[in-house]
């Protein structure tokens, strides 16, 4: 029997961990191909630091081809435009059709901007990150002399960190943070929300909670006031790839791949899905880089187990004991389940963790 083709679809956090495992435990049964639409992973944990001006663009990038070569895999830069789950084939933007025996889907997600569509070209989704960075660079270079009027849609950690980073980099900008009905940092300890609010207000970032309707000029508030904006950075909920709806996979009500506790797709167990593209059966597994990193070794173990005819391993949901949120270069907040702290030393800790992650995958 020939080797089985294992396709790793997506060059994100999950598959970095898979490649790391394969570099140690390469299977003679597998012909592994990594498919990604870009040549590198841009590490999301350092994105706010880059926006703030603390990190150069190159400090965020992890080249994928060397990692694939080290793992004995083939790297293919191409964009996935379709999946036939039953036929075990991926459709690529180049027109090529790629068959597979086993597939790991970790293609990430976009940003759900359906409620912001009336803003038109003013919308700037945070993902895909390369597209965001390209447009953000243009906005910074061509900003008006009087300063920008910027809105941030989304009151989660991503929206908060990016709003604070922008206020640090562009102190002349007028900034509004629209949190929606869920409010600021929903799901985090109350003390963290209070600390974050203090930092936002200190940076003169207006926090708008509740209903705000997007319109071409900006946002209309419940009292009829219109806040005119030049751009709206969208850090709202995730949106699945459009081609997933025609893949034949069983999807959850929001359009993400429904998986079991081993990350196997419920309708097609020869396909694994993880990270932002998957709907895990336990809501403690959220769509975040932290959980994607945690999922990577399980995906690697299960791919190797399935190649050998062994049983895959279930993922045990994990809640980070420490959550770090940067307020500016040199200062950060941290929280656990019911507590929060802040200080300059937490920035130093976060900086070391982030730099170590990138270095670990670039010094091969």
Approximate shape: globular
CATH class of the largest domain reads Alpha Beta
CATH topology of the largest domain: FAD/NAD(P)-binding domain
Distance between the termini: 32 Å
- Tally of DSSP β-strands: 25
**What number of structural domains do the residues give?**
2
Count, helices: 8
Structural class: alpha/beta
Mean pLDDT: 91
Q: What can be said about the biggest beta sheet?
A: 5 strands, parallel
Estimated helix fraction: 25-40%
CATH architecture descriptor of the largest domain: 3-Layer(bba) Sandwich
Biggest sheet, spatial arrangement of strands: 5-2-1-9-21
Proportion of residues in extended strands: 25-35%
* Uncertain ranges: none
Give a summary of the structure in a few sentences:
With 364 residues, this protein is an alpha/beta fold. It contains eight helices and 25 strands. It has two domains: 4-109 and 240-307, FAD/NAD(P)-binding domain, CATH 3.50.50; 111-237, FAD/NAD(P)-binding domain (3-Layer(bba) Sandwich), CATH 3.50.50.60.
